[in-house]
Amino acid sequence: MGDEYKDKYNYDPNKDAPNSNQQFPPEDLDKRIEDIRRIVVQGANEAQQRIKRVVDRASDYWQQAQANPTPRQASTVEEHRIRQLANMWSNQNWRVARELGTYMDLLSWHTDEVWETTLETRWETRAMEIVNEPYSGRNVGMPRALLPVWDYDLPEVLGLKAPQTRTRLDQLDDIVSCSNCNSTGHVLCSNCNGRGWIVCPECKGRTKKRCTTCRGRGYIADEMPGGEKKPFFQRQADNITRSMGGKFADVVDGIRQQGVPLPNPINTDPANKGPVIPCPDCVKGEAPCSCGNGKRICDVCEGARMALCNNCAGTGKLVRHREIVRSFDLRTQSRIVGESVIPQQYLARSHGDLVYNAEITEPLYADAPPEGVPTDVWNATVEMITMEQRQDKPGIDPQVQSRPTLQVVELVRIPYTIARYRYGEQEYTFYIYDNEGSEKFYAEQFPVRWDRIDRLFKAISNDLITPAPNTPSTSETPDERSHGYSAERTTGGYRVPIDLSPYDTDSDEEPKKKEAHDEDEGFDGNDYRYR
Asked: PANTHER family given for it (predicted)?
């Protein structure tokens, strides 16, 4: 409507109203206002009719959506158990329809089972290491021949998860010379590098050190300036103050000598506090060091320049023995034997019934299953054990390969029940698996809990979108019927076509003005578009 108005009157919104030459005929403006009023009234009437229709039928929809199926009664003990489990499933899962076991039609059910085979294998890896120890004077016998690592009978290791162990081989000791000291038992002292002396740590080789009395200044404070003698308690207090200040100054000086530019917050210079006198304990702030020559005798070798060899403890000999290092690695394999729709990751989390559990100490045969184990399950178990025991790998030395030294097999029976049922004129299937008391459930499809509410909203939304029926309106004017439109007919959907406004034709001048204006402006009689 806005585009037609612009085309007819050449309306330009960018131009200012006072400066433009646009003209708005009063009769056309009245018609346009009347058209807008009619469209608004027709749209409001249409929306009112749709909302009224939805309100009238909403109660019926609610009753239909809340109508539950008829409760079903169990005829057998097994059917009663399945219905109870279905109710348990619907209570645990908020997506499943409430009280599913009470209202579902149980069509059929049957039980089946799958087996979970678990094999735990402890793999052992052996390696031989040579270890040296100082010679202690004990004689060793003639060494025996060295065998491969897997030819030695070692102590048994218990448990599937075992730590690393080291086993020393007897009668394989050798006495060899120490290569660290060249069989002399002595090496150069590592503290003085074989010199027998070290630089004096106090004077750093200068033979002089800073005077501790004046701290290198060469002067001290005059205790009694002008012959004045201080009282006893004042002298004691001054001595304590000087002692504490001196200790703190020493700490600061030590930190400063390490390269940290730390200022001394305490002013210990006696020249800033009164008269001073030369220091009686030094010359120009330096005193002779006690070392005399800037050197100190090495405390480790005591000037001998040599020290005992730590490798052979000064004997010059080593005892070489061999150890077998055993490392263990645990590997676990699981396999589901049997056909089931339930995913294996769900079955692996179930407990089941432990039927067979044993440590494999002898070969197993496929034609001799244990009691209570089906033949096909036992055949799959023997095949898995045989494949796990194969350790031959081409191109690798068998002595360095890992070998299974302990195997434990478990056979667990997992029963499950398949139940087919009908709910809401649609058939479903769900599965109950695991032992009694710890049942678990699985289903690919199931009746959802909010299905009835979903249907309620769909019905109401459809009524809101659907147009009202084409019933004649009581407010139609004769002019509307003559032009062939009404509120119900023109609003079908969301668009309302633009038609001529109904005008009062009581006077003869209004139709003549209307026809003359249409001919002058170049419009037809149905809309406001250019011909």
From this structure: PROTEIN SSUH2 HOMOLOG (PTHR48465:SF1)
Q: Round to whole Å and give the CA distance between 356 and 377.
A: 11
Domain boundary among 392, 413, 434: 413
- What is the domain extent for residue 129? 116-168+327-341+348-413
User: What is the domain count for the chain?
Assistant: 2
Q: How many CA atoms lie within 13 A of 433 on its CB side?
A: 26
Q: Is 431 a member of any domain?
A: no
Mean pLDDT of the chain: 76
Q: Which of 191, 196, 151 is nearest to 169 (CA)?
A: 151
> Is the pTM higher than 0.85?
no
Is 516 among the domain residues?
A: yes
Q: What is residue 485's predicted lDDT score, i.e. its pLDDT?
A: 37
Of residues 202, 205, 225, 221, the one with CA closest to residue 213: 221
The number of angstroms, rounded, from the C-alpha of 241 to the middle of its chain's C-alpha atoms is: 62
Tell which residue, 501, 440, 491, 439, has the closest CA to residue 466. Answer: 491
The amino acid at 85: L
Amino acid letter, residue 267: N
Structure tokens of 384? 């898995």
Domain edge (last residue) among 413, 429, 446: 413
DSSP secondary structure string for all residues of 83-125: HHHHHHHHHH-TTBPTTHHHH-EEEEEEEEEEEEEEEEEEEEE
In terms of domains, do 336 and 399 share one?
yes
CA 164 to centroid of chain Cα atoms: 32
One domain, residues 331 and 409:
yes
CA atoms within 13 A on the CB side of 478: 3
Q: Per residue in 359-396, pLDDT tens?
A: 988 888 888 899 999 999 999 999 999 888 776 666 66
Residues 56, 460: Cα–Cα separation, whole Å: 11
Q: Which of 134, 220, 139 is nearest to 177 (CA)?
A: 134
pLDDT digits (tens, 9 = 90+) for 164-220: 999 998 888 888 999 999 989 899 998 898 888 999 988 888 888 888 778 778 888
**Domain annotation covers residue 178:** no
